Every structure is written in C-alpha cells, then in structure tokens.
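User: hey, got a sec? need RNase NYN domain-containing protein folded
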Amino acid sequence: MTSWDDHCLEAEKPTYCCFQHSLDPLDVSGLKQRRVIIDGANLLYLTKNALPGASMPNAKYDSLVLLQLAYYLDFYGFRVKIMLRSDFLKTTSNPDVLHELIDLGYAFVSSKNDKEDDDRAALEAAYRVGAVIITNDKFRNHHGYGFSVKGNLCTVKVDNPVRKRGEWPHYSFQKPLEHFYFINPGMDLQYRRAMEEDAHSPHDPVRSCKLANLFKFVCAVGWFQLHGEWSTEFPKAAYQIPIDCRYLTTKEWYSDRNIFYPPNMIDKSIADGPNSQLQ
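Assistant: Yep! Here you go:
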C-alpha cells in the first residue's frame, strides 16, 4: 500500500517543463547542480500571452509564470533566483504571489529600472558561480564587459501556446539536462566558488516547503474556480485569477510538508486548509 508521504511526493511532482533531448546523454547522478538564474523580465515578456487573463486592469504579465518555473526547478533540487526590475511590480498581475516569491528569497528586485544594469547583475552573478541563466535575451550589448555568457545561457519556449482554458503553459528548456550540472568540477573555478557559497548559505528545506505550498494553494484555488470541485490529485490544469495568497502566508501550517488545500466554498479567491490525510 502506498504511504501518504509517497502519494504526496508523486502528486506534487511537476511535469510541465522538459529539457532538450541530448544526443550524447551523461549520467548526472552525483554531479553538483549549477545554480539557476531566471531572467524574470525576459520570461514575462516571452509569456505575456501565455496566461488566460490578468487580475489587474493594467497588468501586462502574470507572476504565475515565475512561480511555475521556480517551483519546477526547486522541486528537482536546483538553487533558483529570479532577477526582476522594480517597474515590473506595477505591471504584473497576481502581485501577492510575486511579493511572496520575493519574501521567500526566490526573487530579487533591482533598485534600478535600467535594463542594462538589470542584465549586468544577472551576468555577474552567473559568472561568479557558473550559474545557468534562463532567458531568451542574447545579451549582445554586454560582450564588451568581459563576460563570457554564451555557455551560461539557456533559452526557453512555450510548447502549448494554444491551450484549453486554465491549462498551465508547458515549457521546453533549449539545452539538455547536462547543461545544468558541473561536468568537470575538478578544473572549474566557478564550481569551487559555488561550493563555498553553498557552505555559507545551505539549502533551506522550510523555504522549499513554503514554495510548494504556495504552488499547491494556487492550484487548489484555481481548480475550484474553473470546475467547482476539489480533487486530492495535484491538478494539471491549475488556475484562474485572481489568487489571494495573503491568507496562506499568515498560517502556521504554511511550512508543513505533505498537505493539500480544499477550496473555500464561499470566497473563491482563497482556499481552506490544510488537509494532510485525504484518502
């Protein structure tokens, strides 16, 4: 009989991203994962039509795209940082979700609204520890700054631009899985820097639990808004907006593992919860 913990692990496994097929696949077990930097502004531009609407009249983008990518990569053990400019806080819907990503330390907002400064911050961070930058920006304006960026970049595309209402966008990273690991760590200065930074800033499992619960909360609310029903399975079609996550972040069980969220039957923008023993 499957245990509740095993059921939760399988139910919470995100499947909406994939890597490019490798012509010469390598066994990456035992290798250190590279850090991942998400070019938040660029990914919001890329997917501005990937979501079914906006929770604010003037919003052009939706922060659920960033929540998706952060949760996927964090679930599979990658250290993730989203880089954003402050002007996007005013033009991105579901701001509660975006601010919670910032509070959890998954997103960093530059104090400057200059695109060039924003790009240089991502490049400098990636250069120091060998991080992968997920972006469709070629950074052509920055080759004069001494950054060797080509090997660090990974573009992404939306695989299902035409979808049913409420279906999550699916993404393909345009690099094989091996690109996200240190393949020759013994000769790599960036690898040693990454190890040093990890020693000073170890992985925080509580933060990962909160990110997972934030994503499950969004899914529970959205599924009910779309279908008027609640399921113990982690839904594939997940959201309708707006989502009010302020209710979630004030609860002591926000950092608990292996919980799901029945929707609130009166206020459809929030979910009740948690329920950790659904059968």
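Quick note: The domain at 15-21+29-200 is CATH 3.40.50.11980 (Rossmann fold). Let me know if you need anything else on RNase NYN domain-containing protein.
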